[in-house]
Predict the 3D structure of the following.
Amino acid sequence: MDMKEKEDYKKILKVLKKFYYSRKGAVHFSSPFKVLISCILSQRTKEENTEKASEKLFSKADTPEKIAKLSLKELEELIKQVGFYRQKAKRIKQVSKIILEKYNGKVPKKREELMKLPGVGLKTSAVVLSYGHGIPIIAVDTHVNRISKRLGLVRECADVEEVRKTLEKIFPKKDWKFVNLGFVNFGREICKPVKPKCDICELKDICKFFRNKKL
């Protein structure tokens, strides 16, 4: 990479760090299990509803052992705020059972093992590794995917794994944890899917999307 690219990447990272600290979002970072369950709850659900459901659930049951003791009806009642709550309640029960029986109550630290759990895909497994276990990996969700392409950091046709690998080459390993949540918060506040706030964006001078928009 040339000097111009290095400076651009530094500027992007500075903004991501700023937005990383602006709000922590709905995912609970206190334990790998809470991160995992928060991610399952967050699927196709608004952040504020995920937050409410997570708080309610974890105040009653915050370990696989405690969740295993809840009836399905009790669990459904605790997470009613999220979309598809009945389906997610079954999934959370299944995940808790597997973690207890196969992993001695510990959330696995290997991505391939995590992805064997019901409802866990590429994004959720990466979030659990990064924010739950502190293992360096960049989780790519809709915000990371959209904004990295708008900025011109990755190819427009790149899939999520290509996006992850490209971003992991661009940013220093010690800073990977800032990338996902930084992009998420930046995407919610500034670089929105529809009507992005380009006029107040700190990155518009290095943004491919903004340049093309002006043409």
